[in-house]
Amino acid sequence: MVYDADVLGALDPRFKAVPVTAWGRDAAEFAANRPGLADLPTPLVTLDAGALTSNVETLQRWTREVGVDLAPHGKTTMAPALWRAQREAGALGLTVATPWQLTVALREGFDWVMAAYPVLDPAVLRWLSSPRSSRVLVWADSVDVVAAMAPHVAGAAQPLDVLVELGGFGGRTGARSTAAAVEVARAVAGTPGLRLAGVAGYEGAFAHDASPASLTVVRTYLSDLAGLHRRLLAEGLYPPVPGGIVVSAGGSAYFDLVADVLAGLHDPAGGVRVVLRSGAYVAHDDGFYRSITPMGRLDAGELRSAVHGWVRVVSRPEPGLALADAGKRDLPFDEGLPVVQAVRRAGSGDTVPVEEFAVSALNDQHAFVRFPAELDLRVGDVLRLGLSHPCTTFDKWGLLPVVDDARAAQPVLVDWVRTEFG
What we know:
about 425 residues; alpha/beta; Lyase, Ornithine Decarboxylase, Chain A, domain 1; TIM Barrel; elongated
């Protein structure tokens, strides 16, 4: 896959991943020389080219096999080059989480975008009410949301498609019962400028692990979502919907259950699409998602972490403790601390796996690395870190180097990925 090297132009100090030796040099020319990690600065987060390609192909192949569509969540990476790779692999469209992300997706030429939230910004609603060729779907979870949207879509050139969001007590947003969700659907159906186009929800709000109890909770919620869709059909609330009615669920933790419960509703020829919204799979991780991924419950291939941190030891103040040059400003920490996986002696030696080292804490710009006092770790050594939670990794980096293989003895840079986080 080709990402952003050819369109970046000259590299400069705005991006912390760019070494001083590359300032003023063309990004594509710099990548074409395949510089090694020793030529790049620390701290650093890299993307693994092979893992990215494999992950995109693996999940897209699985969705085809089980019979659902995929509109991956763009908020994970906010990287248009990765979005395009997902679309080229067969994704139906893109999912976003804020009005601004929606505008970025439309600017990037996506003609099918799901805004998985209530759009209430008057200017954005008026903008969406103007003639457009793209299909945009938004969510509503209450009659109040519908009422707040109504004055800004009245007289729209084309109706705005709305999915009724079903939630549950203790969850995030979403109508708290099927009965409440039906009232929302009736309100949408009765509002000029809006069109009832389906139902949606997020099962990940109700569980955070893969225990049998959590899987049962998720399955029950998804059954309720299917039941809501069937009730709206039975009551004749759906109008003719160009592009089809949408039933949508699915993050990156329980997409197997989404397919089990909802795939039977997927009938594009009959005007119904089941749309999965998984996003974290594209980069996966070595923490939370590795522990919970449905690929551990399926015989459908493997997802590999495509994100790794590289940090340099800058202090050895006491036995068994090293301080490295990366912290909360550079590395994710909300779903678990980074894990030390390998060491590169003096920052240029071969990447050698290690097991005895552990990150015990992060400050803003420092990582505390603990290890048995008798082991050797020196100032200048570089550690490879496994990371947890890609969503809070990408947002710390405006530009990420893509290496051929992070597990290689001497990884080399082959491309760049630009992110857009505003």
